Automatic annotation (TrEMBL):
<dbReference type="InterPro" id="IPR026634">
    <property type="entry name" value="TPST-like"/>
</dbReference>
<keyword id="KW-0808">Transferase</keyword>
<protein>
    <submittedName>
        <fullName>Sulfotransferase</fullName>
    </submittedName>
</protein>
<dbReference type="GO" id="GO:0008476">
    <property type="term" value="F:protein-tyrosine sulfotransferase activity"/>
</dbReference>
<dbReference type="Pfam" id="PF13469">
    <property type="entry name" value="Sulfotransfer_3"/>
</dbReference>
<dbReference type="InterPro" id="IPR027417">
    <property type="entry name" value="P-loop_NTPase"/>
</dbReference>
Length: 370
């Protein structure tokens, strides 16, 4: 594939898209076995972006420095630490203050610096939801590449339904799936030479062929050790932290490709296929239903109520079943809630930095990422 030249003064930026629970960790962990490649645990900056307008005009050095400091703090409270690196917000601010200002620019400065420390030629962000900000990312980094990972929407929604980072309802998660893939379509249509689209199921059936194709697209060498994820210390580490990642230290099981048939009801499958049927046809997934579910506002309202109740139960269960996972996710949620409280107070009293006490925080107002 002939790609436009990259800026070789820094690692080449790569974004994995479009939606979590697609097998993205499995791919990231294997690629990380290459010294040419670096992809740390993602920041999922989309959780921070609703706060961005509260900083005010980022042309004001004070406002932008606050944002830089807070994003550095977000990296510090990440569930999985980036090995061997601590960022100085003053140093980061001085390095990028004369460049276009945005939360994405701050995040990528952290990523690129971490990649440079690892002597990598390619740095990938696995914050898949950032597909919705591809236009801004391409403005900042015109040489960016995109790895578009497609998974059978029924299997992916079934996985999402059990993950605390998503909704707990097939209708809502199928809608999220559809929106993400529409955003990925925009990327593919606008920058076709910059996008590699691959099916997760193809990776399950032939790891080596899929990884070779992916390495060729990224411009790195395929290494045989990529086929043995048991040799990855990072895979072992994250498998112990959360049930969401428990299988990442083992070889994938191809037989699980149809596991969704036991996890979803016939009605849920019909709902998913009604929303995503065109994409299923495009990517070669055989339909199992008529795809004629009635998707009414009342059904969406019921789904939202069901998901909210299930989310409360999931948090209680997580606290009892995996105190490490719960505490790490709660720490990140608390940090985002603290930022929200502080920025809201500052917006109410312009020109005055607010001091926020613990009883003012509302961590439940913020979702947390994987």
């Amino acid at each position: 594939m002939n790609l436009p030249p990259s800026d070789h003064r820094r690692p080449r930026p790569v974004m994995m898209i479009p939606l979590r629970r697609c097998g993205s960790h499995a791919l990231r962990l294997r690629l990380n076995m290459s010294p040419q490649f670096y992809s740390p645990y993602p920041l999922h900056i989309v959780d921070f972006l609703p706060l961005a307008p509260l900083y005010g005009d980022l042309r004001d050095d004070r406002a932008y420095f606050r944002m830089v400091t807070d994003i550095v703090g977000l990296q510090a409270v990440s569930m999985v630490k980036w090995p061997g690196i601590v960022f100085d917000p003053v140093e980061i601010f001085e390095a990028i203050r004369h460049q276009p200002r945005s939360a994405h620019r701050v995040v990528w400065e952290l990523l690129l610096r971490a990649g440079e420390r690892q002597h990598a030629g390619v740095v990938m962000d696995k914050s898949l939801d950032s597909v919705h900000y591809a236009d801004e990312l391409m403005t900042l980094y015109p040489d960016m590449l995109f790895v578009n990972v497609v998974r059978d929407p029924r299997a992916q929604v079934a996985s999402m339904n059990r993950a605390i980072i998503h909704d707990f309802d097939a209708l809502l998660n199928a809608g999220t799936w559809l929106a993400a893939h529409r955003a990925a379509d925009h990327v593919q249509q606008r920058w076709p030479a910059r996008v590699l689209t691959m099916r997760y199921e193809d990776f399950l059936s032939d790891q080596e062929a899929t990884l070779r194709r992916l390495c060729d697209f990224l411009g790195i060498a395929f290494l045989p050790q990529m086929l043995d994820v048991a040799g990855s210390q990072e895979a072992k580490q994250i498998a112990q932290l959360s049930a969401l990642w428990s299988s990442n230290c083992y070889a994938p099981i191809a037989a699980n490709v149809d596991k969704f048939k036991q996890q979803l009801s016939a009605h849920e499958i019909n709902v998913i296929e009604t929303l995503t049927g065109d994409y299923m046809d495009r990517y070669g997934y055989t339909r199992l239903s008529a795809g004629d579910a009635e998707l009414t506002p009342e059904a969406t309202a019921r789904a939202q109520q069901h998901s909210a109740a299930a989310r409360e139960r999931a948090w209680r269960d997580l606290e009892q079943q995996n105190f490490r996972d719960y505490a790490l996710r709660r720490c990140r949620a608390d940090y985002l809630a603290q930022l929200h409280a502080r920025l809201t107070a500052q917006a109410a009293q312009p020109g005055r930095d607010a001091i926020v006490t613990l009883d003012e925080l509302d961590p439940a107002a913020f979702e947390v990422s994987d």
